[in-house]
Backbone:
């Protein structure tokens, strides 16, 4: 479903390269149809570099093959269908994002258990945000822009859309951007903290689990003071062996360790059926604790830097380098109505900082001396934008 967004970088390069092969744009309809079906089945506005956007319905209008290939994408029924889908999605994904942001939800255990669910929500929200920001702000085709912005060609919200409860408000898009920025900020911080302390936590849980098993082995030796338990050499050796196996788990080999931990957890569940264990609450509590330590070790071993990399790719907003200026007035209006919005804007500005990565990637790879000057230029531009948004704060303080 998100194929065209995932292939957006390829689409940017293709758009530029095709101008070096005008014959394809003019005459090779089969090739152009394949390109459109793969990259532009649900979009016609493309951001091909910082601040540079293009409306293909206009740019390709003078190229016969390209125009015919794009015709299916920009038919009235298809545009209306896409418009309804993405505006409806704004409401649903914002509810999902806000549900995650409720205090007490994004605790460490929840995040570790729901990485795929969280990434899926972020992906859906960012795709929706990208489509609406590009097609309502960067389209040069007034007819299509009005259709996407209001649901009708006249530029006014249609009665049918109103009756269906559809809203076409840039305030909703901005609200989604702010909530999304906050969620990404929280997740990045938690993941970074987990990565920094990953090995130390893993070793601590491993030590605790191993010690619990060793203590149980000594308990069933029948020799510990105040235990009053009948010696059971079989259970004694079994628990001591479990302690050794937990202690021998290799942090460096996460795949093997993960499988082994699953087997150890299952064995600890099965051993509870023994009468001597079933009748002792203290022993059962030790087993529960050890299983929890192993579960935590499994969660931690699955925390990988790839998750942070994926999060960065999904959260990319470099396509909105110029578009974001259109939301300054709405941001300032929001701050006047609710000063607490400034806290959300902080995470949104950090999301916008991802824009700085794009122009620096190739410069950094080439080890160019221009890295510092280019970085300083874009950083200054971003700082100026932040100042422009926040200048409403001192103004509001002194207005009587």
Residues:
């Amino acid at each position: 479903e998100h194929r065209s967004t995932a292939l957006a970088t390829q689409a940017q390069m293709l758009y530029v390269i095709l101008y070096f092969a005008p014959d394809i744009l003019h005459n090779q309809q089969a090739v152009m149809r394949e390109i459109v079906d793969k990259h532009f089945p649900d979009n016609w506005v493309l951001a091909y570099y910082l601040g540079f956007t293009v409306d293909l319905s206009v740019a390709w209008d003078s190229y016969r093959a390209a125009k015919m290939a794009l015709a299916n994408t920009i038919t009235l029924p298809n545009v209306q269908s896409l418009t309804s889908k993405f505006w409806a999605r704004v409401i649903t994904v914002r509810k999902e994002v806000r549900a995650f942001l409720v205090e007490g939800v994004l605790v460490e255990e929840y995040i570790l258990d729901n990485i795929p669910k969280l990434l899926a929500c972020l992906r859906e929200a960012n795709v929706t945000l990208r489509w609406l920001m590009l097609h309502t702000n960067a389209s040069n085709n007034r007819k299509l822009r009005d259709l996407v912005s209001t649901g009708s060609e006249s530029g006014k919200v249609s009665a049918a859309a109103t009756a269906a409860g559809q809203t076409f408000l840039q305030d909703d898009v901005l609200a989604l951007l702010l909530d999304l920025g906050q969620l990404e900020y929280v997740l990045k911080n938690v993941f970074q903290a987990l990565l920094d302390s990953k090995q130390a936590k893993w070793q601590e849980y491993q030590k605790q689990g191993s010690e619990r098993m060793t203590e149980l082995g000594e308990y069933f030796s029948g020799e510990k003071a105040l235990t009053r338990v009948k010696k059971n050499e079989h259970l004694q050796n079994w628990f001591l062996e479990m302690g050794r196996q937990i202690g021998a788990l290799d942090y460096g080999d996460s795949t093997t360790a993960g499988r082994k931990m699953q087997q150890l957890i299952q064995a600890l569940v099965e051993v509870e059926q023994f009468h001597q264990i079933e009748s002792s609450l203290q022993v059962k509590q030790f087993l529960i604790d050890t299983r929890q330590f192993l579960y935590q070790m499994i969660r931690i071993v699955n925390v990988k830097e790839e998750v942070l990399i994926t999060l960065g790719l999904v959260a990319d907003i470099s396509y909105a380098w110029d578009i974001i200026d259109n939301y300054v007035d709405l941001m300032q209006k929001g701050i006047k109505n609710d000063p607490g919005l400034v806290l959300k804007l902080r995470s949104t500005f950090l999301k916008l900082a991802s824009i700085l990565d794009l122009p620096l990637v190739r410069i950094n790879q080439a080890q160019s001396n221009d890295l510092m000057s280019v970085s300083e230029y874009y950083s200054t531009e971003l700082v100026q934008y932040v100042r422009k948004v926040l200048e409403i704060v001192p103004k509001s303080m002194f207005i009587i």
User: Anything to note?
Assistant: The chain has a mean pLDDT of 82. The longest strand covers residues 45-49.
